[in-house]
Amino acid sequence: MNEQNQNKPKQRPEETPKNALGGTSAAKSSSGWRSLFAKRWVSPALFMAAAAIIVTLLWIYQGADTNTDKAVTSDPTEETQGDGQTNAGEEGALPVIAGNESMEWPVNTETLTVKTPFYDDKLPATEQEDAIVEIEDNKFVLSTGMDFVDPTGKTFDVAAALSGTVTKVYQHPKNGLTVEISHGEELSTVYQSVSEVAVKEGDEVQQGTVIAKAGRNDLQRDLGIHLHYETLVNGDPVNPNDFIKEQ
Question: Whole-angstrom Cα distance, residue 134 to residue 141?
Fold first, then answer.
């Protein structure tokens, strides 16, 4: 009996199939999740977490849209006849002139001609064309002032349009010899393309005082002898006609 038992092959213990282990693990995992979700605080917590993520994503998206709207590219600065001024004054923003003075033309308009008017959107189309100035070949700008000429081609006196203080006298490379006068209340007048200047910076001048003679400049050589006159409010050119009291 002992020999027979010794000769019998030893049986190996049965191995648990791997699939059974997998099934057991899956069952345990599934049971764990069911136990977790069975707790009352789990579902509200998950809901709040998901809501927080959604709100955060919406806030980031809206912030990106706002930054995009603010990043507006401005138009490049345009060249003008004046000393770098580009914007016309707003309607209704004309200042009250101190004292009893009303602005007058700086020249004798009875003998002179307005060759180039101030560009105004309210002008008829034909007059708007006259207010477009060619500064280079095929390069045009809108007139920011008025050009006066003598039909005979002669020079003429240039007077202060209003009493004030001479703030600048200088030679501009394109606009020629220039005089600027401040009249207070952010109002000033500019006289370009002049010659024989009779005033200097700091001088107090009275309305009608002759400050120079009409001359020439490089920008508008085709006009010959002329005066380019501008009226500025806060440094921006406005239509001089708006300041001249009708006679």
Answer: 6
